[in-house]
Design goal:
The longest helix has 26 residues. The chain has 179 residues and is of the alpha+beta class. The chain contains six helices and six strands. 54% of the residues lie in helices and 25% in strands. Strands 1, 2, 3, 4, 5 and 6 form a six-stranded mixed sheet that branches.
Length: 179
């Protein structure tokens, strides 16, 4: 578990080697049980360099609390200033207990890119696939609902609510009645 800024502190090599041996063992064990080692990439912008760095550090620490996360190693690039805006990128090596944990993180935090570094194979039980698909469906529904409530007039929103209620009560009849 580590957060570092590339231009920041350096660990002693013997401590780093010891930690990497433990991480390698943990990675092998987790991957052998269906886990995934991935690298996620994020970009952040802000108006204050220190605030941006603190936000990036807090984000990495937040990932440690997410369900299914085994360990995280985050590297924060030194923020670069362009006019009045600072920009940085974060590279996060993350060990997860299963594919659902990776799906949940990607849907929740929208990395700009990702790479799967280690995984033995992808084999899902029916209930695991169901959980993944329901999570994606629910998340997509929540996004759509949020967009509709922010972008629709009150009249359009009422018509939408009526249509959804009708479909839930009697799907076939409602689909035939729609223009």
């Amino acid at each position: 578990i580590s957060t570092s800024i590339k231009s920041g502190n350096v660990l002693k090599s013997s401590l780093l080697e010891y930690c990497m041996t433990d991480i390698d063992r943990l990675t092998r064990e987790t991957v052998s049980k269906g886990g995934i080692l991935a690298t996620l990439y994020f970009a952040l912008d802000g108006q204050n360099k220190d605030t941006l760095t603190n936000l990036a550090t807090g984000f990495i620490n937040k990932l440690l609390t997410e369900p299914g996360v085994v360990t995280v190693l985050g590297e924060i690039d030194e923020p670069i200033q362009n006019n009045s805006i600072f920009s940085t990128s974060i590279e996060i090596k993350i060990l997860l207990k299963d594919v659902f944990s990776l799906v949940r993180l990607c849907a929740s935090y929208s990395p700009i890119s990702l790479e799967i570094k280690k995984q033995n194979s992808l084999s899902l039980k029916l209930n695991e696939m169901h959980d993944i698909l329901m999570f994606i469906s629910t998340t997509t529904f929540d996004y759509k609902r949020h967009i509709l409530t922010k972008m629709s007039s009150k009249e359009e929103l009422e018509n939408y609510k009526k249509a959804v209620a009708c479909i839930l009560r009697n799907r076939e009849h409602c689909l035939n009645a729609l223009p």
